[in-house]
Each structure stands twice: as C-alpha cells, then as structure tokens.
From TrEMBL:
This is DNA-3-methyladenine glycosylase. It comes from the Bacteria. Keywords: DNA damage, DNA repair. The keyword DNA repair applies.
Length: 298
C-alpha cells in the first residue's frame, strides 16, 4: 500500500474518466467510492485500487504480478507528469472551462496494449456496440483480476490471448473482419508498440500507425491514455468536431475546420478538447442517429 498527496488540485473523476466506459468497463470502474483498475503490465496482470480521502491524500493498494508497476505509476496515472507550460486560452469559453476545472489533468497509464485493444474495438461503430464487445472480450478471454476487487473486475486479454481467438469467437462478440485483423496484427508486434509510450508525441503516434488498421483516430485515442498526449486530437471522430465547433463558434464544423480552429493551441490541442468536454456543453443533436449494428447476426 502507498499514500500519495497530490501537490496540485485533483479532480479524480475528471482525470480518470477517459479510461472508463461505465458499467461495460470490466477492467476499470469506480465502485463504492473506490476506483479499480485491472491491467496488463510488464510484470504481468495486476489490480490497482485508489481511494481519495477527505484530506486529499490518495491511498493506493495493488495486487498480482503487476502490483509494483501499478503502484509506481500512480502519480502519472493521476496527472503528475502533465505539463501545461505555454498553454494560452484563445477563446473565452476555453478560459472559462479551464478556470472552472482546476483539478483536470491528463492521465498517463504508461502502457499501450490495453488502450489499443479498446480503441480498435471502438473504430467505426457506436459506443454501445464497442462496449458490448469490450465487456464480452474481457469476460470470455481476459483473466480474473488479482486481489479482493469486485466480482466484475477482469484483466483484458493479453496479446497472446488475442492471437488465440478463433474467427467464430470474434464473430460471437460482434467484431468485424477489419477490426479483428487490426487487433491480431497489433498483437504480433505488441512489445515493440509499447515503445510508443516511452517515445511519446507525434513520433509515438507514428509508431502505432505502422500497424495496418491503426489510423489517426486510433493512435490519438491510445496516445491520450497511454502517455497523456496533450496534442493528440481524435480526428475522424463522429462527435468531437461538432462539440468543438458548437462551443467555439456556435455551429457544427468538420475535421478540416476543427484542425484550423485548434491550430493556435498546438501543442495543447487535445487539452482544449478535454476542457470543452468537461465543461459539459454538447452540440444540439440533429439528423439521423447512427444505426446500431450487430455483427454477430451477419
């Protein structure tokens, strides 16, 4: 067990929120006041429990072969490595969101594989589809989390387990051919991909994109979580351009317009997106909804 007193304001839910997917998140979830993380680490599977005391001190306890790695990574996980030096708010709404969210920092897990696994599952499908597949993948092909955590907690399947999944089982969990091919390709070179977290930045994202099926959106989603990349915007996302445009201009925009609008914020473009997301303002919903597809029936 360890105790850590953050030397800065800390909003635990805002910092850790991007790592969770609600009730379908079997590897990371807040449960009865404790944040539980089950993860693959260089030492093996491990479980981490985080509790924020009333005095602000964070108590952390870990179990399993990955316990030491997870405990050592607690400060970075809670944003200690995040550096906003040079950030300037060019819009009043960004300045206001930043002022209202002093405890928002960018989290860094230090590991690529678990984030990449989820990001690939989220490609080109609705959130409900992706979370359904993620929960089934962790439940059927992951492993029970070490330690005394909640019954639902599972360590996601490691690269070896992913390579062993046969086509029929991919079909059962609703993962189409393109995504399963990307996952298997990533699993084959998983140790090399972990270097991306050490390299960081544009170069780290470029390393991830050497895997066929991993594009700009997927690499950005991984970078945001694995090394807290402050400039990795998820271009190609269905909702983010509309949210950014609605907040900064009052109307919807596309990726190209968002890139131009956020350009003055480099190298903190993703930080702006996080501030706007935390502010809670969303673009009005118009037009047809995304059709929910069930690949298990196709």
């Amino acid at each position: 067990m360890m105790q850590w007193c953050p030397p800065f304001p800390l909003d635990l839910a805002a910092v850790l929120g991007p790592l969770s997917r609600g009730r379908g998140s079997l590897n990371f979830r807040a449960h009865r006041g404790v944040w539980w993380l089950a993860a693959n680490t260089p030492g093996g599977p491990g479980t981490l429990a985080l509790l924020r005391r009333a005095d602000g001190v964070v108590e952390a306890e870990a179990w399993g072969d990955g316990a030491e790695f997870l405990l050592d990574g607690v400060p970075a996980l809670l944003g200690a490595d995040d550096d906003d030096t040079g950030f300037v708010a060019h819009h009043d709404v960004v300045a206001s969101a930043r002022h209202d969210s002093p405890g928002l920092r960018l989290s860094s897990t230090g590991r690529v594989w678990d984030a990449l696994l989820l990001a690939v599952l989220e490609q080109k499908v609705t959130g409900k589809e992706a979370i359904r597949s993620w929960a089934q993948l962790c439940r059927w092909f992951g492993t029970p989390a070490p330690g005394p955590g909640p019954d639902f907690l599972r360590v996601p399947p490691d690269p070896i387990a992913v390579r062993s999944i046969v086509d029929w089982n991919w079909h059962r969990i609703g993962v189409d051919l393109k995504r399963r091919e990307a996952l298997v390709a990533a699993a084959r070179v998983a140790p090399r991909l972990e270097e991306a977290a050490r390299i960081g930045g544009r170069e780290g994202r470029a390393l991830l994109r050497t895997v066929r099926g991993v594009g700009v959106w997927t690499a950005a989603e991984v970078a945001q979580r694995a090394w807290g990349d402050p400039d990795a915007v998820s271009f190609g996302d269905y909702n983010i351009p509309s949210m950014v445009g609605h907040n900064l201009l009052g109307h919807r925009i596309d990726d190209e317009q968002m890139a131009e609008l956020l350009a003055p914020y480099a190298p903190h473009r993703q930080r702006v997106v996080r501030y706007l997301e935390t502010a809670g303002s969303r673009a009005p919903r118009f037009g047809p909804r995304i059709e929910l597809r069930d690949y298990r029936a196709m």
